[in-house]
Structures are given as structure tokens and as C-alpha cells.
Amino acid sequence: MHDPHLHLFINDSEILARSDLHRMVQPLRKEHGNPVLTPNQKDEGTAIGYSSMLHDPHDNRYKLWYMAHEDGLIRLATSPDAVNWTRCGFATADEFQTRCDNLGLAPVGKRVDPFFKNARFVGFAYYVNQLAGDRGQGIHFLRCNDGKTLEPHLPGPLPGVGDRSSILYDHVADEYLFVSRPPRLGFRKDEPVKPRLANLWKSADLVHWDDCGVVLGHDDLDPRDVQIYGLQPFRYGRGFLGFAEIYHEAVERLDTQLVWSDDGLRWHRTIPRDPVLPLGGEGGWDTHWVVPTHNTPIEQGDRLLVPYVAACTKHASGKRHVRAIGLASIRRDGWVSLEAGRRPGRLVTTDLPLDRPMQLHVNVDCRSGYLQAEILHADGPNAGQPITGYEESAARIESLDATNHQITWNQNPTIAPTPTKTCRLRLTAYQASLFAYHWS
């Protein structure tokens, strides 16, 4: 999902001018048949969650490691399609079968400690009870050698770190990003302690960790009761996206907002702050708590799968929790759109490279409208004017919904280099949703 040629509309940093185009966070589509995995009402009790889903190419199965609220033990389920699941029993070695609270899995990096070197996956779990031979409970990093069984590395490297956590393997930098709650507390002026913030650590080997500090917290735009319950980052496009779990303490509800970062260190909430994963309607199974599982979105054709944990009981329900696992998805690169309505909307990008022949692909839904594309001079006496042969009148598309449509000008898909080696792109949309473009 990392693609340096992909341009999203998460913010206006790559937009020079914009008019009559309105940013909209696209809510994930909750799939038919949810929930896809429910507690068995026996040893699992009434609540399962704190989970992580990956696709295992070794046996071409989706695998879901999850914790049952009743006993806190980690279990495994597998599926050929992420919809129909088969339980496979406990997923920890016998000597480490003890109560956990949160877990996440990720691919194996190139610089990991020898303990993790031959694993199929690595990850973390928060152990509520002390492990044999360890100095205490808390965060421990795991290996999975056989595609099922999780084994912790001892001792735990981050004593005192909070329980709600997530992990990302950044294959670009060959390092891990681990997000949890800081061992210290967060404050607002003249307000009681608010402990839930997102703190980041980095490591190449999963043993030695650098504390990068708090990277996301509540701010003055939030209601007074809002806390950052968790953050799951993932590589996307030219930078990072993430799911921020937003806890509304007064009503004991959790929903999920979309966040972004250029470098993985400085995180921002997408404006508007509408949920990317909203709560369900009255009487449903997901009315109180909706948060993605601890993993990156899973690519499946032109869509991205986002499994999630949901509850219809309040945060502090304890043994009376009712919680299950569902499946959501979103069109590829469709996290945020710029919406054009009854008046044509226009944008002009910042400078784009044109030192060699380039092509333009767009992700757009203009089934009831149109989109036009125009290449502009970036500087010189003709700055802002169309480059001959690439006027918008020669590149108009209508009645189309596509995630990767190639733009042509009078059937010509190639944009010739300019003497200045730069250009700008102007897009005009009417009755359309513009999601992204690809320039390469």
C-alpha cells in the first residue's frame, strides 16, 4: 500500500487552489452477514475481541488471533475468505497460557533479534499475569513459527506501558512502530488527569526500543470527555494513515477516526473528524464500541478489508460485555473524497515532476456527472495556462466509477516532458466524488 506516486486528498498540502470541492471522510462499508465471528457462549463467554487478522500465504488462509473476555486466553480461527471461520483452539504454548489483554501481529523484519528470525509472524500481547521466568506482567513481544502458536520473548522490554497497543512493521524503513499508552499521564490545564494518549516507540529488532513520546492526543477541538483510546498506524501512499480509537467517556462509547502522518512521528486527525468506522444503529450489535483489529488493512482486489471488534455494551460492563468481530471494507485508495455537487468544483495541484514522459490515473465516481483533467504550465510566462495538447476539453470522462482509470487527451495517454521539468494538474468535477490520483 506504500506508493510514492499515489496522491490522496487527506489534506490540502498538495493542493494549490480548491473551490466547490468539499472533503468527506468515507465511512467503511460494513459487510453483509456481520458479525463474522461471535463468542461461543461456553468457554469464550459473551465477548471476544482484542484481535489481529493476517493473510498467511504459507497455506493461503486468513488467520484471526483473538482473546476471549471470559478467561483472557488467546485463540485462533482460520478462514478461506475472511467471512466463514473455523475455530482452531488455543494459540499459545502451554507454559504461557495465561490471561492476556490486547494483542497484534505483523510481518517479520530483516533486522529482528535471533529469537524472531525464523518466525512466520511476530507481534505483541499484554499479559495480565506474571509469566514464568519474567520480572512481571505487561507488554511482551511474540513470535509465531508455525502459523498458529504464539511464544513470548522474555523479559518484557517496556515495563509500565499501557495495555491498549498496536504494532506496524514499516517495510520501507525496516523497523517496527509500536503504539501504546505512555507510562506517564497526560493533562489539560485546570482539568483532572486524562491518561489515554498515543505514545510511539520504534525498534528494528523487537528487543531494544526508542521512546518517541506522545504522537497523538486530545485537543481544543474535542469535547471535554474525549480521550485517545488507541492508534493503529499503517503505511499508505506517500506516508502513513491510521485508525484512532476515540473514547467518549461521558457516554462510554468508542468509535474510530482517520488520522495521517507524513513521517510516522507527527500525527494529525483528518478534517472533518467524522468517524471512518461509525457506531451502529439502535438495537444493533455494534452500538457502543467499533474499533478495527490490530493489523493493517488487507488488500483484496479493488477493496481493502478492515476487520473490526464491536460491542453493544458500555466500556465498563466487565463480565457482562457482549462483543464480537465483524468485517468492513473500503474501495482502494478511497479513504477521503473531494465532493463536487451542483456547481463544478475545481482544484489545482502543487508542482508535479515532468522531467520524463508521465501518465495520469484517477480514482473517481462520476456516474451522474463528469471529470475533466488539464495539465498546466507551472512557471514561466505561461504559468497557470494549459499546455498545448493537454486542455481539459480533450480529457473529459462521464458516467464512470473506477479506482484506476487512465486519463487520455484525444486518445493520447502520455504527457510529454516540459523544459522546466514541472507542471501542475487541474481537475474539474461535477456531480462526482474524487478520491485520488496516480502520477507516474
Q: CATH homologous superfamily of the largest domain?
A: Glycosyl hydrolase domain, family 43
Instruction: Calculate Rg over CA atoms.
Output: 23 Å
Strand content: over 45%
How would you name the oligomeric state of the polypeptide chains in this document?
Answer: single chain
Any low-confidence stretches, pLDDT <50, length ≥5?
none
Which secondary-structure class do the elements indicate? Answer: mainly beta
Termini distance? Answer: 16 Å
Mean pLDDT, rounded to whole units? 94
- Fill in the CATH topology of the largest domain: Tachylectin-2, Chain A
In this structure, how is the largest beta sheet organized? 6 strands, antiparallel
Protein model, in words:
This protein is an all-beta fold and 440 residues long. It has 2 domains: 6-24 and 337-439, Jelly Rolls (Sandwich); 29-331, Tachylectin-2, Chain A. It has no helices and 34 strands. The strands form 7 sheets. Strands 1, 3, 26, 29, 32 and 34 form a 6-stranded antiparallel sheet that branches. Strands 2, 27, 28, 30, 31 and 33 form a 6-stranded antiparallel sheet that branches. Strands 4, 22, 23, 24 and 25 form a 5-stranded antiparallel sheet that branches. β6 and β7 (74-79) form a beta hairpin. It is elongated. The mean pLDDT is 94.
